[in-house]
Write the structure tokens for this entry.
Amino acid sequence: MSDGVGFVGLGNIGKPIARHLLKLGRPVWVHDVEVGPVAELVKLGAQRAHTPADLVRECSHIGICVRDTPDVEQLLYGSAGSGRGLLEAPAGTLVAVHSTVTHEAMLRWARHAQMRGIHLVDAPITGGASGAEAATLCYMVGASAEAFARCQPVFATSSAKQVHAGDVGAGTALKLCNNIMTYAAFTAIDEASRLARAGGLTLEMLIEVGRSNGVVTPQMEAFIGNRDKVAAMGPEALAKAFAPFGALGRKDLTAALESAEKLGVDLAATERVRQIIEDVFLARR
């Protein structure tokens, strides 16, 4: 088996992660539907994977950082069931899913991978694009002890922390819980700021008090500051910059609520946040 490291999905988080992989001193193969990010990384020393089949042939570790559950499914099984997906890799290959996906899908993929002798682990991340650039991400990993040990040197190139949450599926479960806290915090500062302004107070006052008691986190402060700055440029600018994040928030919260329903856990507040999260990102309320 080749000792290459592969990476699929070169967006604002995936591209810096893939760039950091070059620190390993192993061949790094990258793939994306957009040619621009691939070309950038090839200039830095990566190899171009024209198809997932190239990754299967060249890599013993393959990371996936694409948008959602259907995108991961297509990569694993191939387009329209073509049988040319990453689950056709040789036995012993490790495939790490960094995307936020449903817990049910992750467990199903892991069962199929195990039957093929492939180590499929879930390793979603938190820290955003800035954390990816600075190599300060936190990886939440669901894997056996053996698979986690294999992952650690690869994940260390772009992280400040790796949490071994448990067996396969535990990383996804932890990420879904983290997402609930993140979007609830954004909603809280959105509503608090609207009430403050309506009462003649300023956002600066609110943040000053929130900082003093730990209620306002740097992430919340960055969100409300950046959103309001772009909102001042007009609704079109705001929609262009923040609509994708609102849609992502709804998708992430839907995944969390689906998991909660299967486990018999009532998350009434999270359901409400899901209903309004796109409006929160677009300052529409």
Summary: The longest strand covers residues 159-166. The two ends are 55 Å apart (CA to CA).
